[in-house]
């Protein structure tokens, strides 16, 4: 480590700094010369120059308040200098005083090594001894690894921090560090550790006190410790007899208005004091107290008066002294008043020992002798943990009082906060480190069976008691997770916080069983139905439950209730008007999504299609408000709005309840086609575990996906897929005409505002009804499937449409019976369901390419590579009617009206256009269009284009609808004789 790196490591980030040049005069007189520096680079340059000049170089360990002051100039005797005119001389000077130190970034310890002139050790005899003592001290105090510098005649130790500490705060903590070191027995220079104006040698410079001068070098580079953590470590080993004060600064004095500092009053525990100190025990024991000399009694009174409160201490002193024949109430009161006026602290072991007669000396046998400075250190009064009663709401909404369980040892509740009791040779202390909090529920995932989080009740400063879920995490993540939830914990207390939370959770585990958190909405295997945080049982019971973190995230925290049912119900009345039957069908679909699983189908899409401004988005918001907050439950349907993985995650959480995707028009048509096909399977992408096998949390669902779009989705899918029939049959599309003449913009805006304030109630009402009538609803849905088949002549390919219509009908009737949709013409709308299926059939037919059309389009596509021939006539007349260009794909024999198509090229064509070749070939074979689907033939046989055999499909063009567009209309009337091709010159 060079000079620049060293100064940057131990000094505050900003200056000004001070470099000191020590000039020695004859006779041993030393004069420091100070050089201000505003940057680390400048300070390093000054130090290097002074060292090069051969002077001892030091630096102030703290940054200055001001780099220079205008001060009187002094002579060598430190007397002011005056001019002959009597005017005092001033100059600019850099002051290195405690008042001019702004802050420090390092706590310092100076360990001297070597011997004095008289042969006695200056501190440690060797540098190795000093290092060994330092290592032992750091282990004993749990202090972080320091930066250690060899100064040439000792060690300079720096405990560097992450940020600057104000000078006053630094001094107070420096005193604690000094007392801690002395208590351990570290041989340090006591004048340095708490002196903010100290200077130490600079790394990279030389110690010119010796010849040859040794280089000041770094032996060990420590790490920067968070300020709170280092200060917390000092607090645990504080030897002061006074109370620990909260906050960063460890102050053991108080100041009155005059600026006079007084020690804080200690608070002692009488039983512990008697147990710890044999002198006190003899002084209060009736058998021996009359043998206690007055000086010893006086020291004991200095301890007893500090037991708990001043009133209790004074009373105890009288009770103990009354049994002695020398007792005088007036005299004792005068003594105690004198002690209080002088604000005397507790007696020390040394003063007690000095007042005892040799025959009564019991301190030598004390196990604490030499380890503590006063009995007060081990006899601090720690009140029992406070009993806390809080008012909370139960599942029925009633406010009840609950007694909070006591925290586990060694933690206690103090003044609305949690504190830890720490014991050491310095006594037992309490350190407050977090808000008052306690765990109330252990939650585990119903699928993985793993605990996902612990629900805590926390007393927030301004909000009062709130419930927050805190997931399991590592110690490194704990601070971030707590801070995100508004629980502020100092870096120094994170380890204690983890200990406290783990111990409290273990205590809760012993008293309370784990609570399962549900991960899906809708139906459960036992026939119950879940909406939000409520479980509706088949027998009519209603229970509250915890929504798992994953479920809340999957539903975007939108499954909750707000406003009133009437507010939502009134908003739906605009759809009772004539001409709004399509909107009513959309609402029936939202209500019918939980019943779709009764149709033996899994999932499908339902789309509201029409030009912009016809009220589709508002309608979706009304439909989503059945179940929860529409602003959260509705996701953008475009590629940029939500990925397929996100939509599947939402479907997994909603399970049987519908999901809502707004404006899917911008989503790629090819991707949308694939999305619909996969969604109807009701299962997300399978993922493997690291340990092997399939992960148990694969997304699954059985519901309706309600979407809206501006464009005809059937036409969009057909434009990219010639064989888009399977995906079209999984999409129920409702075309919406303009409704501006039915619902005005003002009315639409009012409806939107109403459902943003009133939502979630209808879902709970219909969910409870489904749970108690599950068997009847299932039978009704399956009955309506059969009826819809009969009414529409439904085909097997239309099973998703039929299932959707049956679910919508059953849901509409249930909602009408419950009064959810007053004034809705449900019976008339049910008739419209069957018309909807017939209309869908016509829409799909218009956008579906038949096998005949597909084959005709291929023949048109392959026209440039088609060889057209007819039978040869008499003579040597060429039979080629049309020559291929760029390859040979089709052979067309005009006389037999047969076409032979290269199967490989045809298959490639189908793959590129996502056409199911085998299914279309079978359909054409059944109609007699395809005669052979896999025969060998030379496509260019009998012509100059003849090559090898290829696998072909034989087609009878006479049976192909529309005939072959590539055959010229004049082909049938073409002359039988063609001009002869010349064969010679």
Can you give a write-up of this model?
The protein has 985 residues and is of the alpha+beta class. The strands form ten sheets. A six-stranded mixed sheet has the order 34-33-35-36-38-37. Strands 4-7-9-8-11 form a five-stranded antiparallel sheet, with helices on both faces. The protein has a five-stranded mixed sheet with strand order 21-20-19-22-27. Strand 25 and strand 26 (542-544) form a beta hairpin. Helix 9 packs antiparallel against helix 10 (329-341) and helix 16 (581-592) crosses helix 26 (799-818).
Let me know the number of strands: 38
Strand content: 15-25%
Order of strands across the widest beta sheet?
Answer: 34-33-35-36-38-37
Low-confidence stretches: 238-263, 963-985
Question: What are the main properties of this structure?
Answer:
alpha+beta; 985 residues; single chain; six-stranded mixed beta sheet; disordered C terminus; five-stranded antiparallel beta sheet
Question: Summary?
Answer:
The protein has 985 residues and is an alpha+beta fold.
Compile the SSE list and pairings.
Layout: H1 3-10, E1 17-24, E2 30-37, H2 40-52, E3 56-60, E4 62-64, E5 69-72, E6 90-93, E7 101-112, H3 127-141, E8 147-150, E9 154-166, H4 167-184, E10 199-201, E11 217-220, H5 227-236, E12 253-255, E13 261-263, H6 270-276, H7 278-284, H8 294-304, H9 310-322, H10 329-341, H11 349-355, E14 389-393, E15 399-403, E16 411-414, E17 417-424, E18 427-435, E19 437-445, E20 451-460, E21 464-471, H12 475-484, H13 494-511, E22 515-518, E23 522-523, E24 529-531, E25 534-536, E26 542-544, E27 546-547, H14 549-554, H15 565-571, H16 581-592, E28 604-609, H17 616-624, H18 630-633, E29 634-636, H19 644-654, E30 659-662, H20 669-679, E31 704-709, H21 713-720, H22 725-728, E32 731-735, H23 745-757, H24 761-772, H25 774-792, H26 799-818, H27 826-846, H28 851-861, E33 866-869, E34 880-882, E35 890-893, E36 898-902, H29 903-912, H30 917-926, E37 930-937, E38 950-956
Parallel strand pairs: 19-22, 22-27, 28-31, 28-32, 29-30, 30-31, 33-35
Antiparallel strand pairs: 1-2, 1-3, 3-10, 4-7, 5-6, 7-9, 8-9, 8-11, 12-13, 14-15, 16-17, 17-18, 19-20, 20-21, 23-24, 24-25, 25-26, 33-34, 35-36, 36-38, 37-38
Helix pairs in contact: 1-2, 6-7, 9-10, 16-17, 16-26, 20-21, 25-26, 26-27
